[in-house]
Amino acid sequence: MYLVDANVLIEAKNRYYAFDIAPGFWEWLEGAHAAGEVCSIEAVKTELVGRADDLSAWAQRNSSFFQSIDQATTAHFPALSAWAASRTFTPAALAEFAGNQADYQLVAHARGHNLVLVTHERPDPNSRKRVKIPDACAAIGATCMDPFEMMRRTGAKLRLGT
């Protein structure tokens, strides 16, 4: 199963899969969720719902897409925190990562449930100013990929209507 970062949904809405030009993406996403292939977490929904836009409305209509955090997730918080603290991140980067509930929880949730975390972020092991999701995933044994690879692996086909 694939676990979607907020930036995947936001970028899709703002750019290549806008609701008015590519409704098939959103239909595919809903179908993939119904088939048990794709989900996200409630902290991502929280990031999306206050925006008063199409994505906010979509998130509210599809609340089952967003899973709750559970003990399997929180069990990985100590290892994730220890890894981040052992690196050369700035105090501001550490505070943002721990304070950014979504990124921190996404990484732990992916590891705790053996999900593949899907994000547009790229690894940057030398980063000091920001904890990157792919680096955090690698550190605690979670898998990470971009949304296009997820779509290929799930067999997504977005076809234009006639």
TrEMBL record:
UniProt cross-references to InterPro entries, sorted A to Z: PIN-like_dom_sf, UCP008505
Give the domain of life: Bacteria
UniProt-listed Pfam families: DUF4411
Q: What is this protein called?
A: Uncharacterized protein DUF4411
Question: What organism does the record attribute this protein to?
Answer: Nocardia caishijiensis
Taxonomy of origin reads: Bacteria, Bacillati, Actinomycetota, Actinomycetes, Mycobacteriales
